[in-house]
Design goal:
33 strands, globular
Length: 1003
């Protein structure tokens, strides 16, 4: 029977122990403030960061950039750019040091050396060594101080399979060398044994996701298989050597799958009896208490204990921002006190179950450690089953005080080159300088009662569950301050993955059905049908689609004409409500619609889901927009009213593409409809089943007959007929430049009987470039370029087909880019492991192959991946040393083909980027503020993305569209898009009668 002790008993003991520990750590405390001016530069930087929030942000950004800077002049100029920012109030010493005219000058070089050395010194405080030799020296020193250790290998971004294999090999080597060294270590009873049981002297901490570069919860089975093989190798070797292995926990998205993989693996016969393995729980997660209960139940079933390391969690900012951006529920507590309280709850839970679990309590907060000791002493927890942990370089005094009290303390020691170590360093600096940090509060002479008070949790309002920050961020982003986008599906949740699998089964039972056009509210038979095929497997027919004739197109046009007067008079609020209903129906059918997109156009699951979100967003955003525009504008003056109002144009013809068959078709159609126009939707032939599904939803939402009509047909016949029709008022087109220009020309010609000029909105593609400069974070840049170039096989209008790289990093970038691309999984779009699916059809495949042959004649082939035969597949292709004027640098290919262009400096990079006929999307990876500023001004694109991938524009956040030959018209999902479907009118009334007019405010 587990002993339960009243919490109040623990509290008294906690306070008593904490006061003793604090006394031991607080000698020389006033030293901090009194000698601030005599401190070393590394201490000064930290002290300034604590007292100045603006400086803290810019300083940490500079530190993040530092590893990419290879000369003192670069360091000096970046120092000036970051810390010379207007938002930063500089301390006098720093201001004086930065007051140089030229980065190459002697004062510039001195500044670079001073700050560079200070940051390196800071890094060495928190990083236990740059190589194994240094690490062995560190741990031998720790052991002399009676402290155990666990070693973590820095360099977190594993983006290629070669890097994942290297990660495993480096750990095998690390364990080997540490165990070899440990043979010369004298036994230290305080840390090497407990309760008559030997404790491994060597322990390493590993990150599970680093064992597979394409680790993804969506592909739970594939990720588990790939990771488990490498983990088994690691655990077998650890057993042979007598080393312990601990698994760290990373971002929330990986938590459930990490726990699931480890639970399965550690029940295998070979590993079931191992007790030298540990897992990690993060107390800042709202579901961590439940996770611990689940793990304890599982350990009871397993029958052999494991260690659970309890930490607060290191990715709070990242988790909060990601959830806000994705409109997901916050996974972390928003309040530091709530995390501290949860930490204490879980500490108690672990220690009360000490016969099933070894507890390792990781913290730098004296109260947290004292609480654990109070509970452990009250429950007489055996020494083997309980230890305390701190991070290297943090809480050193606390650790010493704990050792002096006779507790086993383990120090978490990251090691590795300072370059990949910077991300780790910044997390530690953020932690140390945060207002809520215990270490900081302790340094600031806060009263002992305040430091040691039990955490008091503020009650969170119910409204916070969807998350207040989401609302805040949304309100900062859009004129519709209340517009909140739809949340994408979170595939990290197992029940969501199950629902998706079920949706595939349901849709597969409906394949091969016939879909008829909708004319004047009736589904009508057609003289001609076309099969829509699955591009991943062209023997599979998704559906048969009836193609209308020109005569039927005329009937549809007449029906639209007849319906227009009534629809024009329908109040905007009523039209908007129908649109919102459509958005809700899309949300209800999200999983099923995603599957139709996957099967009909070969888009991988996650991207298909994002497309459904976009369609929903268009419905809700344009509903809000029409209500805003419907209010009109008053320009009244005394004696006269002036109203500025809008009215619908008439009949809109929407010609939608196959690459975003739901989102773009939906966006253009509902924009026309909600503006009061009758609308004919003619989709691309290869994606007509998805638009038939959209038709079902729009009809169910309540659009009247004749107002919306679904008219699939041949572009060359029906499309051309509708474009040239004298009763067409607006043409909304997305597709190729060739067709777009033809539509533009034809629409400009006045037809007999036509009494208006046609409005054309055309989005016609791009030759999109990403610039990578020498200060870029290469981990981030490589991943972003791979996603932008090869996501949906390069078939997005926004996809990157050129990457322009500055000379100093060109070779390193190309090498990693090739390795990362090699690591992608190519296969059927419906497989959860697939990152690169098929191209749309045989014509596209053959056209892309021709471009690849041209590329081979013009440039060096850096990579050509093989592809499956059964569907329309093309493996990713990368060309290096490409001329800016080559065919593959100038013409839109619309496939997974990437040209890598070398340039000497940033000015040339911009000139090359702007040197095509297009201006749709562009990207920049840089940590140089002046380059970012220059790109914002000079990079000629409609959508510029900085330090992120260049695809996936979000409605109301990144309105989408370009200029030059990329298109004409306002941006989709932006505040002026609906204006294109409306005619503005001004109505003026003289309200004077016989010299009398009402005067507001007069008696």
């Amino acid at each position: 029977m587990v002993l339960q002790v009243q919490t109040s008993t623990y509290e008294a003991k906690t306070q008593e122990i904490a006061k003793q520990l604090l006394a031991a750590t607080q000698e020389n405390r006033s030293f901090f403030s009194s000698l601030r001016d005599q401190m070393r530069w590394d201490d000064k930087l930290l002290a300034w960061a604590m007292s100045n929030p603006g400086l803290r942000v810019q300083l940490f950004r500079f530190i993040d950039t530092l590893p990419a800077l290879h000369s003192k002049s670069e360091i000096a100029s970046h120092l000036q750019e970051y810390l010379g920012d207007e938002s930063v109030e500089l301390p006098a010493a720093l201001k004086g040091m930065l007051n140089f005219a030229n980065p190459d000058s002697v004062p510039g070089q001195v500044a670079a050396t001073t700050v560079g050395t200070a940051v390196e010194t800071l890094a060495h405080k928190y990083i236990s060594g740059e190589n194994i030799k240094q690490v062995i020296k560190t741990v031998e020193r720790l052991r002399k101080e009676k402290m155990a250790f666990t070693i973590d290998l820095l360099g977190e971004a594993v983006i290629t399979e070669a890097e994942a294999q290297s990660y495993l090999e480096r750990y095998l080597e690390l364990m080997q060398q540490l165990v070899e060294a440990s043979k010369n270590w004298a036994a230290i009873p305080a840390i090497d044994e407990a309760d008559g049981e030997a404790i491994p002297k060597v322990q390493v901490s590993v990150k599970l996701t680093a064992f597979y570069s394409q680790f993804d919860p969506l592909d739970a089975k594939g990720s588990e298989d790939r990771v488990s093989d490498r983990i088994r190798t690691l655990l077998r070797r650890a057993k042979e050597l007598g080393a312990a292995v601990h698994f760290d926990m990373e971002q929330y998205a990986y938590k459930d799958i990490t726990l699931s993989i480890l639970k399965k693996l550690l029940l295998e016969e070979e590993f079931r009896q191992r007790t030298d393995i540990g897992i990690t729980i993060q107390a800042y997660l709202r579901d961590s208490e439940q996770d611990v209960k689940d793990v304890i139940s599982w350990l009871k079933q397993r029958g052999y204990p494991l260690t659970i390391r309890l930490v607060k969690g290191a990715y709070w900012d990242q988790e909060t921002i990601k959830a806000a951006q994705k409109h997901w529920k916050q996974p972390v507590y928003n309040d530091k006190a709530a995390t501290d309280a949860n930490f204490e709850t879980i500490t108690q839970l672990l220690l009360e179950n000490h016969q099933y679990v070894y507890s390792a309590i990781g913290s730098h907060n004296v109260r947290s450690h004292s609480r654990a000791i109070a509970i452990a002493e009250s429950l007489n927890v055996p020494r083997r089953r309980f230890e305390l942990q701190v991070l290297y370089g943090m809480g050193d005094k606390v650790a010493k005080a704990l050792v002096d009290r006779g507790y086993r303390v383990r120090v978490y020691c990251p090691y590795g080159e300072l370059l990949p170590g910077m991300a780790y360093l910044i997390r530690r600096l953020l932690e140390n300088t945060a207002n809520s940090s215990f270490l900081r509060q302790n340094l600031e002479n806060r009263p002992i009662e305040e430091l040691l008070a039990p955490p008091i949790v503020k009650e969170e309002k119910k409204s916070l569950t969807p998350n207040v920050q989401t609302r805040l961020i949304a309100s900062l982003q859009t004129p519709n301050s209340h517009f909140l986008g739809a949340a994408d599906t979170d595939y990290a949740q197992e029940e969501v993955r199950t629902k998706t699998a079920q949706a595939f089964q349901n849709v597969r039972q409906q394949l091969g059905k016939t879909y008829l056009p909708l004319i004047n509210g009736e589904y009508v038979n057609t003289p001609e049908f076309v099969d829509s095929l699955n591009p991943s497997n062209f023997s599979e027919v998704i559906g048969k689609v009836g193609l209308i004739s020109v005569e039927q197109a005329e009937q549809a046009m007449q029906a639209a004409k007849a319906a227009f007067p009534g629809w024009k008079k329908t109040p905007a609020k009523e039209r908007a409500d129908i649109l919102r209903k459509a958005g809700d129906l899309l949300e209800e059918r999200r999983a099923e619609l995603s599957v139709w997109i996957v099967l009909e156009v070969g888009k991988p699951v996650k991207e298909a889901d994002g497309e459904v979100s976009e369609a929903i967003d268009f419905c809700r955003y344009y509903a809000d927009e029409i209500e805003r525009l419907d209010k009109g504008v008053n320009y009244d003056i005394a004696g006269e009213t002036n109203r500025y109002i809008y009215q619908p144009r008439g009949i809109a013809v929407v010609i939608s593409p196959w690459n975003f068959p739901l989102a773009i078709a939906c966006g253009m159609t509902v924009a026309a409809l909600v503006s009061g126009n009758c609308t004919l939707l003619k989709p691309a032939e290869t994606s007509s089943v998805i638009t038939a599904k959209l038709t079902e939803i729009l009809i169910e939402a309540g659009f009247p007959k004749g107002v919306f009509q679904y008219v699939p047909g041949k572009g060359s016949q029906v499309g051309a007929y509708l474009v040239n029709h004298p009763d067409t008022h607006v043409i909304a087109f997305t597709g190729s430049q060739e067709v777009g220009c033809r539509i533009y020309a034809e629409a400009a010609t006045l037809k007999p009987g036509q009494k208006h000029m046609k409005r054309v909105i055309a989005e016609m593609g791009g030759k999109n470039a990403i610039i990578v400069d020498e200060s870029a974070d290469l981990d981030q840049a490589v991943v972003g370029v791979v996603q932008s170039a090869f996501g949906y096989s390069g078939q997005k209008c926004s996809a990157a087909s050129r990457v322009i790289v500055l000379q100093p990093i060109y070779d390193a970038f190309v090498q990693r880019l090739v390795e990362a691309t090699k690591s992608l999984n190519i296969g059927e779009a419906e497989l959860p492991s697939t990152q690169v699916g098929p191209v749309i059809d045989a014509n596209a495949r053959d056209r892309i192959r021709e471009y690849i042959e041209k590329g081979k004649a013009e440039a060096q082939l850096a990579l050509e991946l093989p592809a499956p035969e059964q569907g329309y597949f093309i493996g990713p292709v990368i060309f290096s040393e490409v001329s800016p004027n080559a065919v593959i640098s100038q013409q839109e290919i619309f496939g997974p083909v990437l040209a890598v262009i070398r340039v000497k400096d940033f000015s040339e990079a911009l000139a090359v980027a702007n040197g095509t006929n297009y201006a749709l999307t562009g990207g920049l990876y840089s940590r140089t503020p002046s380059h970012i500023q220059q790109a914002q001004t000079e990079f000629e694109v409609g959508n510029l993305y900085i330090n992120r991938n260049i695809t996936g524009a979000i409605v109301g956040r990144q309105p989408f569209g370009g200029f030059k030959l990329s298109g004409v018209g306002s941006k989709a999902g932006g505040p002026d898009y609906l204006l294109q479907f409306l005619e503005p009118r001004a109505v003026t009334e003289n309200i004077q009668r016989q010299g009398f007019a009402p005067i507001e405010g007069a008696e």
